[in-house]
Specification:
- The chain is mostly helical.
- Helix content is 57%, strand content 6%.
- The protein contains 5 helices and 2 strands, in the order αααββαα.
- The protein has a two-stranded antiparallel ribbon.
- A hairpin with a 3-residue loop joins strand 1 and strand 2.
- Helix 1 packs across helix 3 and helix 2 packs across helix 3.
- The two termini are 26 Å apart.
Amino acid sequence: MLPFQIKIVDGVPPSDQLVLAVRRAILTGFLRDGQEFPSVRTISQELQLSPTTVHKAIGQLRESGLLASRPGVGMVVRTDAMPSNADRLLLLKPAMEALVREAVALHLPPEEVAKAVEKAITKARKI
């Protein structure tokens, strides 16, 4: 089983969705520095994506420094090239957009939503 999953969303290229899923797996510790990365064939079969799509995503991850090729091993994860805060915030974009839509529908003031988010983050860090 892969340490990341994707749910194909219309309008977003599957390769971009795969890149985001891998970034999230690295940032959350499901993929660690030096860990062997699954093969194109494995990813393609498990996620039901074309090998071309998987190759494209792996190329993007290599370019960003999150994957490296190791002779005799294949691709490995590199966490010394962690994404910036701005890149990590991109991972939250879908969840933030959903939160904002719900907050607007409930007529909640932004200050109250910000306080609730801050409180939830503080609670999550204690766990």
